[in-house]
Amino acid sequence: MQTLSRTRTRRRQQRRNRLWRMLKRMLLAGTMTFVTCMLLGITFLFATEKGEELREWAAGTLLTTQHDYWAPYTFLPEEKLEELRQQIRNPVVINSADAIAAAEEKPKVTEEPLPQRELIEIEEIDEKRGNYYFKGKLMYISDPKRVQLLVTTRTDRGDLLDEFVKKHNALGIVNASGFHDPDGYGKGAKANGLVIKDGKILQSYNAKGSETALGITFDGKLITGNYTAQQLIEMGVKDAMSFRPQLIVDGKNLFADKPAKSWGIQPRTAIGQKEDGTIVFLVIDGRQPGHSIGASMNDVADILAERGVVTAMAMDGGSSSMMLHNNEAITKTSCPYYRGRFLPNAWAVL
C-alpha cells in the first residue's frame, strides 16, 4: 500500500512540475512577445517617417484640448511643438469681403421660375482619409435670414441644444462659441469672445485675442474677420460670436497649403455660406472608434470648399460638437451625456 501511495504522490508531483514548466514557458513567451512588440513600436514611432507623422498628429490633437500638457510626452522637439502651438494660437486672419448677396439682390438671369427649394436639406458625410475615418452631417439652409444666434439667459449654466430648440422652436441647430472649460467640466454660462444678438452688443471684449468674429448681417450675409463688436454693428451685423480659425475666405481655402497635423483630429463644427446665400452647417463626429475618429481642419475646409462654400469658419469642437434637426440629434456627440453639453449660445434655423 505504501508503494502504491508513493507512486500516486510521485505522479501528482510530476503533473504539477509539467504544469509549472508549461506556465513558465507561456510567461516567457508572453514576456518576449511584449518586449518585441514594444521595441518594434518604439522603432516605428521614433525611427520612421510614418511614426514621426503619427506623433505630430497626436501632439496637434492634444494641443487643441484641455490636456495640452500631455503634448511633450509625444517626444517631439520643443521647436516643433512650439510651431504647432503658434499655428493653433495665432492663425492668419483675413477680413472677408462683403461680396455675398442676399437672394433678392441677385440679378435675374432667366424669366423661367426657379424650383422651390426646401428650407433645410441634410447631407450625410462618411469618409476615410489615410489612417482615420469620420462621419457627420451637412445642413443646408436656403434662406440665410432664417439663421440666428440663440443666447442662453441663464447665469448658473448654459443651455443644452434641445433646450434652445424647445425655447425658440428651432428647426435646426448647432453649437457656436467656446467657453471657460476647466478640465472639461465647464458649465457654459458665458461665451469666450464677443457676442452680438439682434444688433445689440452683449459682450464687446475678446477674452482670447486670437479668436475671430463671425457675424450674419440683417440681410443675410456672412462675415468673418478681425473685427470689434462696434465695427460689426456699423457693418449691419445682426448676430455675431467669436472662435477660430477661419477656413475659407472669399473663395480661398486657407488650409489648402497648411499641415493638417497642427490642429490634430477632433470632433468639428463649422459654419459657412455659398455664393447664392445658402448657409451651411457642418458637424463631424469624433473620439468614437468604430463610428468616427474625427477630422482635421484641412478635412473640414476641403468638405466645405468642394460644395461651393466661399466663406467659412470653425466653431467650438470636441465634446461640444452636435447637430439637431426637428428636435432630434442627427450627429453623435462625444460627450458622455447623450444630450450634449451646456452651451452659451448656438446657431439655429428659426
TrEMBL record:
Keywords: Glycosidase, Hydrolase. This is Phosphodiester glycosidase family protein. InterPro entries: NAGPA. It comes from Brevibacillus composti. Residues 169-349 form the Phosphodiester glycosidase domain. The keyword Hydrolase applies. GO terms for molecular function: hydrolase activity, acting on glycosyl bonds.
